[in-house]
Amino acid sequence: MLGAIRRVHQPQCHTRAVQSAGYDHEQRRKPHAVLGAKLSGLDVPIAPIHRIDVVGDVHGQLDALLGVLADLGYEKERDWAHPDGRVLVFLGDLVDRGPQSLEVVQLVAQLRAHRRAHCLMGNHEFNLLESWVEGKRARGSNKDTLADIRERPEAWEAQLPFLAALPLAIELPGLRLVHACWHIECVRLCRQGLAPQVVPASSTQEDTWAWVKRHISLESPFTPTGRKERLPAWGRDGSHNTCAEVLIKGFEEPVDPKVGKVVDPDGGQWSLQRVTWWLEPERYGRDVATDLPVVFGHFWHMPPRAAGDATAPRHLVTAPGQEAARRSDAASRPGRGRLALGLADRFLCVDFNGMVQAGRAACIGAYRWPEHELVWNSAGWDSP
Ligand SMILES: [Mn+2]
């Protein structure tokens, strides 16, 4: 009975809404066409005892990650405990591009097991699981990691349950965390398929790790063995463009014909580019909530030079031939720093991999909450 209801209701309602959310080709330029349903704010009071550090895309850069963890005050010799009981939240994209994807995954999985961290799913984990477990054609960005999986299968297999269980979203009272895009209608649609695990408060002594866990609002779309069975396949060819993918990949649109193509960090050239959803409220209207800060990664850019430069800027799209300008811009940025944010800084992208794309060192960013502060580290490189 229940199964029959699901089969009749869910796919139809989802397909219509998802198509209008910009998934099919006619609608691709109009992601704002969705009827937004504004999330009601959570009314749980902020407990000042709970303090977190949100870490952006790591992409296999273990040294820069260790640098930023030390800058944030986590103590390696004490099993990565923080003296103030702080907890880390990783925004996903632990793997690919950098030299030590497996070691980064092992460290974050260990941090999670020891209740020092939570971790969301990024598009690189999502795509990796699709190729590794489901046999989907590998993307260029995953190829090195897939080769490493073939070389070190046992070590990677041991991390599969961790990777397959990465959740999609965390909603703390006063803060939203997601890998790429907080799109209200897609979050709502995901909720219908991916009910959050309800974890009641254990006691008044609830620690910060348990408190954050209780606010995971969307769980992983994968089964524990890495199969994508918890979401129906949407999109024209049935293989892509789910609401979950909007949260971890955002939207894309055709590149301006005057620019032609854009170059990605793996050297691939694309005629579609990422939409900077947080900068275009006129296009998104009700689907981008401005009532609470959103911290996300995915849209690699540069660390700020000064206060006022901190709200996520336009995504760094590199057209062929712009590499020299990008390098000189990167050279003028501090490679390591700490910066207090302003009240107007509501959309915060902590993916500073624009530095590595411009030929400088890797740079891992973090957002401290509730201090409302940015911290970043480029593994031994301080200033220009
Ligand atoms: Mn990403």
What does this structure look like?
The chain is α/β, with parallel strands linked by helices and 384 residues long. It has one domain (50-197, 206-377): Metallo-dependent phosphatases (Purple Acid Phosphatase, chain A, domain 2, 4-Layer Sandwich), CATH 3.60.21. It is 30% helix and 14% strand. The protein has 13 helices and 15 strands. It has helices at 2-23, 62-72, 101-113, 123-132, 143-151, 153-157, 160-164, 184-193, 208-214, 243-249, 281-284, 323-331, 354-357; strands at 52-55, 87-90, 117-119, 169-172, 175-178, 216-218, 252-254, 262-263, 269-270, 272-274, 294-296, 337-340, 347-349, 364-369, 373-377. The strands form four sheets. A six-stranded mixed β-sheet has the order 3-2-1-14-15-12. Helix 1 runs antiparallel to helix 8 (184-193) and helix 8 packs across helix 10. It binds manganese (II) ion. Manganese (II) ion binds next to helix 4.
Distance between the termini: 65 Å
Number of strands: 15
Identify the strand order in the major beta sheet: 3-2-1-14-15-12
Query: Which blocks of ≥5 consecutive residues have pLDDT under 50?
Result: 1-47, 232-240
SSE pattern: HEHEHEHHHHEEHHEHEEEEHEHEEHEE
* CATH homologous superfamily (4th level) name: Metallo-dependent phosphatases
Number of helices: 13
Average of per-residue pLDDT values: 79
Strand content: 5-15%
Oligomer: single chain
User: Which CATH class is shown?
Assistant: Alpha Beta
Largest sheet: 6 strands, mixed
- How many structurally independent domains? 1
Ions, cofactors and other bound molecules: manganese (II) ion
- The share of residues in helices is 25-40%
